[in-house]
Amino acid sequence: MFKKKSVYTFLQAQVAAFVGGVIDYGLMILLTEVFKLHFAFSILISGTVGAIINFSINRFWVFKNKSGYSSHINSQLFKFALVVLGSISLKSFGTLVFQKVFQIDYKIGRLITDSFVSYGFNYPLIKYWVFRTKEKQNVIE
């Protein structure tokens, strides 16, 4: 049975991911179509911008993890950066596979890849590793 708080947190995280994702996706298209960068480089740049937005929303709204300790935020930023690095790598590789192997337009391949990466990689790591608080470590949600 799902806890209401867990469902609410999941939905909030999806809003954060959506906002960061829309900016990420729009910037990827802008950089690829207007500035003629290869989509893999566009994903790297746009993913970084989207990640900064996503981190901020997750930290202050979703997980309400506003500890004033600089070492705490440094730890979160480091962990989040590792998640983002993995996420961007998976998104770039997945989009490339859809485009090269299956001849699917990079914009569609990116959307397909994003759905798997967001739910299967980003959300669990962000919730249970990046923004995990000491009081949550003893409780299984």
TrEMBL record:
The membrane topology of this protein is: Multi-pass membrane protein
Ranges annotated as spanning the membrane: 7-31, 37-57, 77-98
UniProt entry keywords in alphabetical sequence? Membrane, Transmembrane, Transmembrane helix
The residue ranges of the GtrA/DPMS transmembrane domain are 18-131
Its annotated compartments are: Membrane
Q: What is its main location?
A: membrane
Say yes or no: keyword Nucleotide-binding present: no
* Protein name in UniProt: GtrA/DPMS transmembrane domain-containing protein
Look up and give the organism this protein is from: Flavobacterium chungbukense
Lineage of the organism: Bacteria, Pseudomonadati, Bacteroidota, Flavobacteriia, Flavobacteriales
